[in-house]
Structure formats: structure tokens, C-alpha cells
Amino acid sequence: MSLQNDLTHKVIEAVKQLYEVELPTVEFQPTRKDFEGDITVVVFPMLRHVKGNPVQIGTKIGEYLVEHVDKVSKCNVVQGFLNIVIEDSYYLDFFNSIFDETDFGYVKTQSDDAVMVEYSSPNTNKPLHLGHIRNNLLGYSVAEILKASGKKVYKTQIINDRGIHICKSMLAWQKFGEGETPESSGLKGDHLVGKYYVAFDKAYKEQIAELVEAGTEKEKAEKEAPILLEAQDMLRKWEAGDDEVVSLWKKMNGWVYDGFDTTYKNLGVDFDTLYYESDTYLLGRDVVKDGLERGVFFKKEDGSVWIDLTDEGLDEKIVLRSDGTAVYMTQDIGTAIQRVTDFPDINGMVYTVGNEQDYHFKVLFLILKKLGYSWAEQLYHLSYGMVDLPSGKMKSREGTVVDADDLIKNMEDTAESISQELGKLDGYSEEEKKQLYRTIGLGALKYYILKVDPKKRILFNPEESVDFQGNTGPFIQYTYARIQSILRKADNVGSSTVETTLDLHEKEKELLKQIQLFPETVQLAAENFSPALIANYTYDLVKEFNSFYQQVSILGETDEQKKNFRVQLSQKVGEVIRSAFRLLGIDVPERM
After folding, report:
1. What ranges make up the beta strands (E) of 30-187?
2. If you count DSSP H runs as helices and E runs as strands, how many of each does the chain have, helices first?
3. Could you give the subunit structure recorded for this chain (predicted)?
4. Cβ count near 32 (within 10 Å)
5. Cβ 434 vs Cβ 163: under 8 Å
6. 298-299, strands of its sheet edge to edge
7. Which residues are CB-neighbours of 420 under 8 A, at least 6 positions away?
8. Concatenated DSSP letters of 158-188
9. Do residues 117 and 139 lie in contact, with contact meaning Cβ atoms separated by under 8 Å?
10. Residue 326 DSSP code
11. What local confidence, expressed as pLDDT, does residue 400 receive?
């Protein structure tokens, strides 16, 4: 039981004994730095149930706690705040209890119900870009946090591998590619296919201009440009299963998948299962027909099928066109149901998709609830804002979007430049330097993005993110490396328990209190689907450790028992940093 839970019971017991009143809740907060105490009870909310002066009430409760709770050594009251001082032995008992837990803060899977987390979900007509990076980092981190909180998790994506945009790349390659391949060009497969998507767009615009110049209205020209009509014909052939078109589609998508796999590996994310839109785009129509019979949906005069969500503050939404073809909503309904069929233990899903789709997911979740699926109560849209870059930085090959591979390389280069300026790499081999630049660069990128609440838009500055001071990934990585240096110099960390009679320095106690918060932070981050809570907890822990490091002698301590404890405490802080960063998908270097 946590200290707060334990004290809650004792405060309720005290009020019952002293005032014959049953408190429903007890409000706590950390004790302010300028007052003595480890945890504070806020007395003011009690005045709704206990009549009297808050200082007197707090004083009586404090006296009761000192008398009846062994771990409470003394109390003081400041206005309506009861500050409680906890015995050092309590914190040392806690430390001994977790010392051998290398995964302290993680919960082994307890639930039989699984959660499926979807992220990435790219189109196969271009490389992954900056927006995909935020998507992947958020989705992967949330999946890891959910696992650490005790949930069973499936990581998935749905690959948008069909449609007119895919045919545009295919057609342009046929027309202009002259048999070019990733091998012959030296380009990653996704970049090569993206090159022909841009080539299609260029040719399309040229044809529109020619038609307009010949007297065709622009709107008509946009619909009748020959290259667009050819792409539409190619899509019809694909849907009809034309051997030649399907063969080209498989070949070019194969190039893209190889390219994506390289990017995912470099970014450090993975998936347990994959779905393809070419397999799922027909799903959902039978579900809609069944829902129509049950009155969930209604049919309009033209034969199209809709759902009325006006009672929920939304509007009417189409789910089948008048010709019987599906819309994206139909496909998403069918895909969600298919996933539960494939994995019957799923009792919830998390969709990592940008905030421009907020309305779509409100509608999707409502429809699934109205169709009567119990797991529809546990659906969550992990909505996130855009990522912007300072103007002029890192233009992509096409000059319009920043692709993921360019950004990852840029981060490694930035880390190399700043590390060399700081001169911290004496004695490193070239291979070790290269690996370190990668660890620092990716750590900077991931931390900068994940420390921000997902819903907020981000202005990402590469140089600012690779700062070795402040709330950055490299600052935390550097502190971890410093701890490893302490452990190497100490040579023997020791495995014996710490004597609970040891007098704690104020900085040691503050550090132990921060470590105590980690399991609670993991659970809170899982409940809120928020990697930012983990990131900012880790920064607070590192700040606390650096304050301890600056004010308390570790290896220079002459008392062997104190020295041993401080080394062990440093080791545990390092383990928690590593565990927290693992949830963010960030590596920590042994030295920097």
C-alpha cells in the first residue's frame, strides 16, 4: 500500500475518533519546499463535514497521526495545511523492498482483456514524413506504456495500399520510369515510388494547362486530363483483378514496404500484426445491411444508407452510397469488427490519427456502440496536432514535405556537430561515435516530440532538441551516463540491504520520494494515453538526482555505509531512467 493510501485510512480514522464524522475523501499535495514535511493534508475540504478552525482541526489530526502511525515522526500546521514528516526508516524500507526489482514500476500482465493500438498507417505512394514520425512515436510509446501498466497489447497498422493515388505512381512509373528500380537507382523503394507520384502530378498539371490554353474550362480540364483518365482506368482494372496491373501493383508496393521497414527499424518502432486496405476495403457492407434491418441505419430515396446522430449533437452520416459502394466509414466499421474476430481477447482499441480526423472517430465510435459491440465502450482516438519546423529547414527532395529519413539523418548530423563542439568524445572509436550520434539524435527527436501533450501543435527545432541542458533527451541521457560512470568508479555496488537506522540527507529523501512516484506515473500515463507524463516525470527525477549529486558526496564519502547506500541509490535512479525511457522508445548510452 502506498504512503498516501495508508495515511488516507489513518486520517479518516482520526476524524472519526475525534469528531465522530466519516470523511469521504482526503486531499493530499506535496509539501512546499519552504516548509518542513514530506506530504501535506489539505484541511479546508474537511470543513464541509467538520465544523471548526482549520488550524485546530489540523493540529488534532496531526497529534493523532504522531501517536498512532509509526512512520509519522512529527507534524506542523500552516494555516489549513497539515505538513507530515515521515521517518527515514520508511523510505529505507521502501528502498530495500525495490532494490532487486530491475523493472520497478512495471506491472506484469494481469488483465485477460487486450488492447489493440493502431499507428503509422501510411499510403504506399510516398515515403513516411514528419507527421508520420509523431504518429509512430506516440503510438509505439502508448503501446509500451499500456504494456507496462499490466495490459496485453497488440501493435498494428493498416496500410493504405490501394486507390487512385497508388495508381498515379504506378502509371507514372510505366510512362516515365524506363524500368528504374531501387537497385538500379540507389533509391529506397518508398522514395522511388514517391518520385513517380510527384512526376504524375507534374504531368497532370501540364496537361491541365494545355487544355485550358486550348479553350477548356479549368474545372472540366481537371476532370478530363488524359493522364488522370488513364489512372482511373488502371484503378478499374486493379479492382477487376487484371493480371498485368495487379503484378505491377505488387512489385511497386513491395519496394515501398522494404523502404518503410528500413525507416521503422531506424526509428525503433515495430508492429505485431499488419492490415492492408486492399483486404479490408470491402468490409463493413454486410454489417451496414444488418444494421439497416435493425433500425440502426436508414435508407434515403436514392438508395443511399445513413445514420442519424443529431441526438448526439452530430449530424447524419452516409455509410453506403446509392450504388451500394462503401465509404471510408464503412470500411473502418468492418475493420474494427474484423480485428476483434481475429483477436477475440480485444476489449479496446487506440487509434493514433491526426486531429483533422476528430469528427470521423466520434462518428465511428458512436456507430459501433449503436451496433451493440461491448468493446466499443473502450475505443480511444489518440488525436495529435501537427509538427512544424522553423522555415527553410530540411526541405525534402520534392521541396514540399520533410520526409522521415531526412529528419532522422539530420538529427544524427546535429548530434554529431554539437557533440564535437562540446569535445566530449575523447577515446571513442569512429564506430562508437557513430552509434552515439544516433542514440543522442534519435533520443533528442523522440523526447522533444513526446514531452508535449499530443493535442498540442509542435514547433520542432533540431538544434534546440539536442541541447545538453534543460528539458531535453540528451540532458537526461547525459545524466544516465554520469550515473554509469559513478558505478564503474565504485567498482562494487553491493547487494546487501541498507540499515534502516541510517540518517538520510534531505536530498536522499527527496530522491527516494521521486522514485516512489514512478509506478503511479506509469499507471496515470496509461489511463491518459500520455507519454508526456512519463517524459516529464523522468526530467523531474533527473533534476532531483543532479541536485543530489551536486550537494552530497557519493564516492568521496568516508562513512562506508553511507557511501554504499548512495552508490546503490544512484544505480536505482539509473534503472528508473532506463525503464522510463524504454517506454518512450529511447535508448540510453553507457557513456557520453
Report:
1. 39-42, 72-78, 81-86, 114-118, 152-159
2. 22, 14
3. Monomer.
4. 12
5. no
6. 298-299, 305-308, 316-320
7. none
8. EEB--SHHHHHHHHHHHHH-TT--HHHH---
9. yes
10. B
11. 58
Place of cell 529505507: 92
CA angle 300, 302, 304 (to 5 degrees): 60
Neighbouring C-alpha atoms within 13 Å toward the C-beta of 173: 28
**Span 109-151, pLDDT tens digits:** 778 899 999 999 999 999 999 889 999 999 999 999 999 999 9
* Residue 416 near residue 424 (C-beta atoms within 8 A): no
Do the strands 458-459 and 387-388 form a parallel or antiparallel pair, or are they unpaired?
Answer: parallel
pLDDT digits (tens, 9 = 90+) for 304-344: 999 999 999 999 999 999 998 889 999 999 999 999 999 99
H or E element that contains 306: strand 305-308
Rg (CA), the chain: 30
Of 75, 90, 87, whose CA–CA distance to 36 is shortest?
Answer: 75
Q: What is the dihedral of CA 201, 206, 211, 212, to 10 degrees?
A: 100
Q: Record the cell numbers describing residue 154, joined without a space.
A: 497488440
Report the alpha-carbon distance of residue 557 to residue 564 in Å, rounded: 9
Q: Which residue has the cell 506515473?
A: 521
CA distance 248 to 177: 13
Is the distance from CB of 363 to CB of 319 less than 8 angstroms? no
Picking from 167, 158, 157, 241, the residue whose alpha carbon sits closest to that of residue 204 is: 167
